[in-house]
Amino acid sequence: MRAAEGSANTWYPLPPKCSRRHQTLRDTAVDAAFDFGTLAELTEGYSGSDIKELCREVAMSVAMESFEPGSSGTANRSDGSAPVRIRPLTLQDFVVAQASKTRKAYETNMRNNRARAR
After folding, report:
1. pLDDT digit string (tens) for 26-78?
2. Strand partners of residue 30
3. Is the whole-model pTM more than 0.90?
4. Do residues 82 and 74 touch, judged by C-beta distance below 8 A?
5. What's the total number of domains in the chain?
6. 73's torsion region: left (phi>0), alpha (psi -120 to 50) or beta?
7. Alpha carbons 13 and 80: distance in angstroms, whole number
8. How far apart are CA 104 and CA 58, in angstroms?
9. Range of the domain at 55
10. Residue 93: is it exposed, middle or buried by C-beta count within 10 angstroms (0-12/13-18/19+)?
11. Within 10 A of 41 (CB to CB), how many other CB atoms are there?
């Protein structure tokens, strides 16, 4: 459970697996082989806002990919002549983003621990 924002006395339970399966990706294009069950397992222990943040991060990462030179998307046209096509999200996108977040959190914790030790 986690504390609600702005309140130290109110606790809300983390969302169950069935809620994590469908939360936040309702209107997002996902790959045909996307496994929501595996995504629910990957987000065990995440709050609703944690899941929303992860989904937003993955969607932005995939969108930015379309603007990279040589990408298969058409979003890299600066004159606006072509429609923007962004590929559907894959489960691998979430695995990469989660690993990146874990690494960043680890590095932040290590920096904080070193600072406290001084």
Report:
1. 778 889 999 888 988 888 888 888 888 888 899 999 988 887 766 655 554 56
2. 89
3. no
4. yes
5. 1
6. beta
7. 46
8. 15
9. 2-117
10. buried
11. 12
